[in-house]
Design a protein that fits this description.
Blueprint lengths: L6 H4 L6 E10 L8 H13 L4 E11 L10 H13 L4 E4 L5 H11 L2 E4 H12 L3 H15 L8 H7 L17 H30 L5 E6 L5 H9 L16 E6 L5 E6 L9 H6 L5 H4 L3 E7 L5 H15 L7 E6 L6 H12 L4 E3 L8 H11 L5 E7 L4 H10 L2 E7 L2 E8 L1 H9 L1
Parallel strand pairs: 1-2, 1-3, 3-4, 5-7, 5-8, 8-9, 9-10
Antiparallel strand pairs: 6-7, 11-13, 12-13
């Protein structure tokens, strides 16, 4: 923790903003998460932001949320004293905060305030690297801001010279009327359409490559990027923080049996992802929909690993990922467990053909994972006869590009092929 600074100095460029992370444990909410784990995740989210120091974190138990200020009068005063004593300039509330509550709390406490959605939007704005990622962040932020005509969180923009909370060129604060926001959203959607078209062309080109696609998915900070870097020799940002990777990255890797696959790293999943981001980043996860195999990375050392795994399964279902797509569950970070726990997990994993216990950091189990991938991607082939019209030149070219044609005959009625292919290839051909 750095020495206390004056409020004005703390907002200058190069100085860390001191933050207070609060998790409201609302007792009337029967579906509320376990408060300690929820607070830890919120702190991890806050630490993913640049130029931010978490000075305090606290679970606040509430019988029910107050409509105007979320907290009761006594708790408001108590929290205000803590904010003043620790020279806090930003309060992060791990939950939904209405625009009215936000304005009132900022006025009462004399600080900036962000709820969980605003915080995640800030992280995405700081981490997005590709043109599409930046546009998606801008669009999601504007959708969120449209209902919140309050002051923008401009100090981070001044610090990092980037998008800031508003996002988008020329925007420095949220105090823009709905007409201006709508106009900007229209412009962003047009730009995004162009980018998506370009990406679709790239995806179509990759579809012609006769290599299966393996998608890395998992809860954020599960170790996907670390495994991706070890397997491909790439230099993807891999840090012990949430949302270190936002944009999908694809690389070819060679397996032990000599086969080649395309490995795709994706954005980490998280519980209660803001609806604006679910919609905006759906395209970012489209690579998963076309995957031949899904590697579900789990931080097996995390106390909430089962809950995280359930959240990943839910999001995959919401994305429309077919249950027919094979999956391998990767129990990562076993090096963080005790020797006894490691041995127990290795025994459990050895009993299953769809689970591997490993450590992407140390390399243990990576070779075994490669063998499992090769085994999963070697499905039985079926022989079929196809009849195509003479005009189906594109389909014919695809068949030969895939190397599945065993015999060809042409007559007046069209083209006749004997093909040997997998069910996946047959499904892809049907979509042509």
């Amino acid at each position: 923790m750095t020495p206390n600074k004056g409020r004005d100095e703390g907002l200058t460029k190069g100085a860390d903003m001191r933050a207070f992370v609060l998790h409201p444990d609302i007792l009337s909410d029967k579906n509320r998460p376990e408060p300690t784990a929820a607070l830890e995740e919120a702190v991890s989210l806050a630490m993913a932001l640049p130029d931010l120091e978490v000075a305090l974190s606290q679970v606040v138990r509430l019988p029910a949320a107050k409509p105007g200020r979320l907290f009761g009068t006594g708790k408001l005063a108590e929290l205000k004293d803590q904010i003043k004593d620790h020279d806090v300039g930003l309060v992060l509330i791990n939950g939904a905060v209405t625009p009215v509550q936000q304005r009132n709390l900022e006025k009462d406490w004399g600080v900036k305030l962000l709820d969980r959605t605003g915080l995640i939007l800030e992280i995405f704005a700081a981490r997005a690297a590709t043109r599409e990622g930046v546009l998606q962040v801008d669009l999601a932020a504007l959708s969120y801001q449209r209902t919140r005509l309050v002051r923008a969180w401009t100090h981070l923009e001044r610090q990092r010279g980037g998008l800031g909370f508003v996002g988008g060129p020329g925007e420095t604060q949220i105090e823009a009327d709905r007409r201006a926001i709508d106009a900007q959203m229209v412009r962003l959607k047009r730009q995004l359409e162009k980018v998506v078209k370009t990406r679709s062309l790239h995806r179509a080109a990759r579809a012609k490559v006769p290599y299966p696609v393996v998608a890395l998915v998992g809860y954020t900070n599960a170790g996907k990027s670390t495994l991706f870097n070890r397997a491909t020799g790439a230099d993807v940002l891999a840090q012990d923080m949430l949302f270190a990777t936002l944009d999908p990255t694809m690389r070819a890797i060679h397996l032990a049996d000599g086969s080649e696959v395309i490995l795709s790293d994706t954005v980490g999943f998280i519980s209660d992802l803001p609806t604006q981001l679910v919609a905006a980043f759906r395209a970012t996860l489209e690579e998963v929909l076309d995957a031949d195999l899904i590697l579900h990375m789990r931080d097996i050392s995390h106390p909430q690993t089962e809950e995280q795994a359930a959240e990943v399964h839910l999001i995959l279902e919401q994305l429309g990922v077919s249950k027919d797509v094979p999956q391998i569950e990767v129990w990562n970070k076993i090096d963080r467990l005790s020797p006894e726990a490691q041995d127990s997990l290795r025994v459990l994993a050895a009993r299953r053909t769809d689970v591997v216990a490993m450590s992407a950091l140390t390399g243990e189990g990576v070779d075994h994972l490669h063998r499992m991938i090769a085994a999963q991607l070697a499905p039985p082939k079926i022989t079929e006869t196809l009849h195509l019209p003479h005009s189906a030149g594109r389909a014919r070219a695809w068949l030969f590009e895939q190397g599945v044609v065993r015999a060809e005959r042409v007559d007046d009625h069209g083209q006749h092929f004997t093909v040997e292919w997998t069910a996946t290839q047959a499904a892809r051909f049907a979509k042509l």
